[in-house]
Write a structure and sequence with these properties.
The chain is of the alpha/beta class. The protein contains ten helices and ten strands. The chain folds into two domains: 171 residues, D-Maltodextrin-Binding Protein, domain 2 (3-Layer(aba) Sandwich); 115 residues, 3-Layer(aba) Sandwich (D-Maltodextrin-Binding Protein, domain 2).
């Protein structure tokens, strides 16, 4: 009799504990968020990704009800920060911001060794900007157009030095595509992040760079933009022509900057994050703030953002296979 009673008490206690855990989890999801949300940035402070992240953090509290704290963890073209976000508890308190283009470029270069996957590990929660790559030279450069630079490089193969934000960046891939497409060669000089790349160009350490054109902001006296890789002109730097407008091959490459959450986040938490990001990214205050820093607001839903990533993946995969064979 005592044994049966003991078993009954034990089973009842276990059942109660299970119900309590389920109830607690439901309450936690319902109350989310109850503390600040971390936003992992895989690039140095001052770069275009960091600028977008900090601008969003300034407004998301109005829609989420909690502050968003930007955490910079540079390395491996932003993938180390992605690994950190993936390793954190899957409770909606650690998110990741990364260019869709750079994400797939890094994935395709690393293959099975990739630290994280845009498709298997994460889900887009919305796009908050558009990353446009520019061909940038020092302000006192003798080149005043991309066509002039190409003509010189053809006559002086391998002489020019070009900077980029790292071997896994979409900007770097765009630079390689530009060189290959125009049948020219130059010495590549990789840096860790866009801000360091910009400083190298501004300081005259290199002849040109491929980096986010938004990094021109505040450096107009030291830098000069010769063209953009997109099929249309940048929304902020409208006076910078595309390569197609200059008689060169039109590249048509740009990328949405996406806020990513772990793929298995609870549906209700995901919905709250999507709604908050959409609200902040489409607000007038956010648009004004990012424009002052040299970038333009660009919102896309999670579904639209994922479609853009797949489209970029189709473009870059065969090119990477050729460049890194």
């Amino acid at each position: 009799m005592t044994t049966i009673f003991a078993r009954l008490v034990k089973s009842t206690a276990l059942a109660f504990a299970t119900i309590t855990m389920i109830w607690s989890g439901a309450v936690q999801a319902q109350d989310y968020p109850v503390k600040p949300v971390k936003l992992m940035v895989g690039w140095s402070a001052g770069g275009s990704t960091d600028v977008y992240a900090r601008s969003l953090a300034s407004f998301v509290n109005d829609y989420l009800g909690m502050p968003m704290v930007v955490v910079n963890q540079p390395g491996a073209s932003g993938m180390i920060a992605g690994k950190t976000a993936m390793s954190a508890p899957h409770d909606g308190y650690t998110l990741y911001v990364q260019s869709g283009g750079t994400f797939v470029v890094r994935m395709r270069i690393d293959g099975e060794k990739s630290l994280v996957s845009a498709y298997d590990d994460f889900q887009p929660l919305g796009s908050i900007g558009k990353v446009v790559t520019g061909l940038i030279v020092p302000a006192d450069s003798p080149f005043n157009s991309a066509a002039e630079l190409v003509a010189y490089a053809k006559e002086h193969p391998g002489e020019l030095r070009w900077a980029n934000p790292g071997n896994g960046s979409l900007h770097t891939l765009s630079g390689n595509i530009f060189l290959q497409g125009n049948d020219i060669t130059a010495q590549g000089v990789p840096f860790k992040g866009g801000s360091k790349t910009r400083n190298a160009v501004a300081g005259g350490q290199v002849d040109f760079a491929f980096m986010g054109i938004s990094l021109m902001a505040g450096f107009g006296e030291k830098l000069k933009a010769l063209g953009v890789t997109d099929s249309e002109r940048d929304a902020v730097y409208k006076d910078v022509p595309t390569f197609g407008e200059q008689g060169l091959t039109q590249m048509g490459i740009s990328s949405p900057l996406i806020i990513w959450g772990q793929k298995d986040l609870p549906a209700d938490i995901t919905a709250k994050l999507v709604e908050a990001i959409a609200g902040a990214a489409t607000s007038k205050g956010y648009a004004k703030m990012v424009k002052k820093t040299g970038v333009a607001a660009f919102y896309a839903t999670p579904e639209e953002a994922l479609a853009m990533v797949h489209e970029l993946d189709e473009i870059v995969t065969p090119i990477i296979a050729e460049l890194f064979k």
